[in-house]
Amino acid sequence: MGVIAERRSAIAAGTSAPRGNFFGQVAMLTWRSLTITLRDPGTVIPGFIIGVFFLLVYDASLSGAAAFFLRGQSYLGFVLPLSVISTALSGAGVAGQAIVRDIDNGYFNKLLLTPVSRAAILLGPMIAGAIVIVLQALAIIVAGLLMGLEPATGVVGLLTLLGYALLLGMGLSGFIVGVALRTGSPGAVSGVSFLFFPLTFLTATFTPINLLEGWIRTAAEYNPITYILEATRGLLNTGWNAEALSRGLTSSVVIFVITFAFALWSLKSRTARK
Amino acid sequence: MNNREIVAENLVRQFGNFTAVNGVSFKVKSGEIFGFLGPNGAGKSTTVAMLTTLILPTTGRATVGGFDVTSQAGDVRRIAGVALQEIGLDPLMKSMELLTMQAQFFGASRKEATARAKELLELVKLSEFTSRPVGKYSGGMRRRLDLAMALAHEPEVLFLDEPTTGLDPASRRDIWHEVRRLNRDHGMTIFLTTQYLEEADLLADRIAIIDKGIIQAEGTPADLKAGLGGESINVSFRDAELALKAAEAVRDMVTKVQIDRRTVRLYLAGAAQAVPGVINRLGTHGLEPISLTLSQPTLDDVFLQVTGQRFEAEPTEDEALPA
Q1: Closest to A274 (Cβ–Cβ): which among B14, B115, B149?
Q2: CB contact under 8 A, A32 and B93
Q3: Which tens digit of pLDDT belongs to each residue from B93-131?
Q4: Architecture of the domain delimited by B6-220
Q5: Whether ipTM exceeds 0.90
């Protein structure tokens, strides 16, 4: 037996089930998902256009009406995070479609037949999806800068905004991947991405939360996206605010943990002893 | 050498109300080629899916190389190579990428994996096609690459689910040759499901025939054939109705009669000597055969006997099924 079998035996000697190098596996699978996305870019290009479109339209149609609560802050900075989040919803579909595609062409089974960590198999496409979301956010930021955005926290603030986009992208991807594993259907994946969309309206969508009243205010207070919006709006318009940033961070992490658990559970139930 | 056995004990798998595999038990010895035969929907692929950890058994247990498929799934995956009936290749990727990643998944370094990938491409005769995306490969090329993927980590136990279905005769012979070589040179235990009786007969040390989720017969090809009790006279008629009449006419002369459409199979000892008597008897009933052959039992006959149906494989693109 050759070198690979020897190495495999060496790995096996250490543990009952080889973990290999978890991060190496995640990196390989992420790279693979990104490569595939580049070879078939049809699913990601619309996201870049839509993101910039959101920014232009929100800014043009609402900046006048918003002047009274902004008190000199820029409406561009106020709606830019909203554009990023709206776009992230479409970007998350990328991860879901990648899984559906692999189930369909049989490669998903090939991966499941290897000792690779089940979490890595899901994280690869999720991270790739989140990277696409970050690139789409970057396109929106560039458009914003060209339209005259002056971020209160500078370049570091913009990078922080991208960090939030990455985390939220992971969280949304986890949910979509779970749906992909349960249904194996491209239709269900795009349908569910669409269902997420109203969530961006049950938040402090076009005004700060303190201007909302009644049931929509309650909904916004329970919607974790509200806190991500507030954190990132602050970065662009008012400056560093540790409390808002940590609330936003907590919300993003909570979304990620819940949806990733859902994705893992969905993978597990595919093999269940029905 | 490590334990390379496959043991199934009363495996059951249900999908909703449907029982795909209904209490299957067998033992494949280390270094054996085991043929798993059955018609479509018999439970072959479901059994492979359970043995390779893709689905959990509803009840029962199985081990591969001594590792339990449920509680030690990671170890089973580490030592098993699997080529499923449904080829598992991403059409947008290239052969080198797929093979290199596959070897790395099993613990190879990037350098080792690259060397292994080249070796495997040579083995399956795809070295010239590395720049082409797998989606542009022919069916035979994809099947060969899929086999190479299963071999990336030099597995100890190899599962091949219908590895030659849809292949042209030359590619099929290449695969047969390779299966024998892997078994002989590397001592791999090979679990092979197939639609081709000829394939099982040629390759397998032992065979199990599965139908309706139950193993109907098991043994070496020679044992299974001998179990039928000898030779047969096969008489064909213009239509099935005549065949039915003929079966009635000669029933008392033979040990066993089987009707297969227009053909009557008469099982009896000393078939050659009995031919004149059979012809005479048919003549007195006014039954005129259109053909008459003598045959030693084949695996096909075994199959017909245990399942009550002719073994029907899906015709391949370029050749009719061997009868």
Answers
A1: B14
A2: yes
A3: 999 999 999 999 999 999 999 999 999 999 999 999 999
A4: 3-Layer(aba) Sandwich (3.40)
A5: no
